Amino acid sequence: MESAPRSIAFFDVDDTLLTVGSMLRFLAYHWEREGLDPDRFARARAELHRRREAGARRGELNRLYYRHFRGCDSVDLAEAGRDWYAAELARGDFFHAPVVDALRSHRRAGRHIALVSGSFPPCLDPIAEELGADLVLCTTPRADAGVLTGEIGVPVIGPEKAARARRAMTAYGVAAADCYAYGDHASDLELLLAVGHPVVVGDDPVLADRAAREGWLRLPAAAARSVSAAQPASAAQPASAARSVSAARPASPARSASVAQPASAARSASVAQPLSAARPTSVVQPTSAPRPASAAQPASAG
């Protein structure tokens, strides 16, 4: 029987564990895969961007995002999610190395790993499997007989991330003071405040200011990919290309008896080490320079 976790480490996903915003990239991939109008993604992204600029809350953008999947079969989406993930890995620079190193450190220390995201299972399940996550706390689209209605329950954004984390801590009987959380955006602040060990990823001014005042740990922002963030992973990319081995040494077992260093020391791990023995992949050490703001940057729905 698996022993109870010492604590839980909660990780935001987009631009925290990953170097990209997975939700819009998956939407573009899915529509390309289905052979839909290639301009459809551009229009959807432009609408999300317009609403964000008009002051729409992230929860509202999250709901708008899922309406684009109305009528989709849930089984087909799960398959598309795995193909999308394989294509992203094949392109490289998908995972944000310092945060993945911190995640490994927590696993070695016997902590449960939880992904907390406004994204949904087709995107998150293959990532969770790769990283050995124990929990996926995410937005759940509503379905009727396996077909998505385009509506969701409560978006796992802002306060809801903190609420899900608190419920998980209660369910596992762990103290909030012993838990960790990682986030990159001001909307992650409540999640960070819900635990005893918050870690800010990147240069969001709200989080950076709070980290400076509270003495929170910080990790560098995810480096921009060498390709445009708006460019979807090609649906033509074969899944087998994503499984190239970058190093022979497998990751440490998730339930090692050794006590790991704290998250602040996580960057000492080799970035060439595979994420798992089953699915080795290469991660690249990003720079610490902040990502420049751009009016062309796609709106985030999660």
Shape: globular
Number of helices: 9
Total beta strands: 8
- Mean residue pLDDT: 78
Low-confidence stretches: 226-230, 236-299
Topology pattern, helix = H, strand = E: EHHHHHEHEEEHEHEHE
User: Main sheet: which strands, in order across?
Assistant: 3-2-1-6-7-8
Distance between the termini: 35 Å
Helix content: 25-40%
Strand content: 5-15%
Give the class from helix and strand content and strand pairing.
Answer: alpha/beta
Instruction: Please state the CA-atom Rg, rounded to the nearest Å.
Output: 18 Å
- Main β sheet profile: 6 strands, parallel
What does this structure look like?
The chain is α/β, with parallel strands linked by helices and 302 residues long. It is 35% helix and 12% strand. It has helices at residues 22-33, 39-53, 58-67, 74-91, 97-108, 121-131, 159-172, 189-193, 205-214; strands spanning 8-11, 112-117, 135-138, 141-144, 147-152, 180-183, 197-201, 217-219. The strands form 2 sheets. A 6-stranded parallel β-sheet has the order 3-2-1-6-7-8, sandwiched between helices. Strands 4-5 form a two-stranded antiparallel ribbon. The longest helix has 18 residues, at 74-91. The protein is globular. The two termini are 35 Å apart. Residues 226-230 and 236-299 have low confidence and may be disordered.
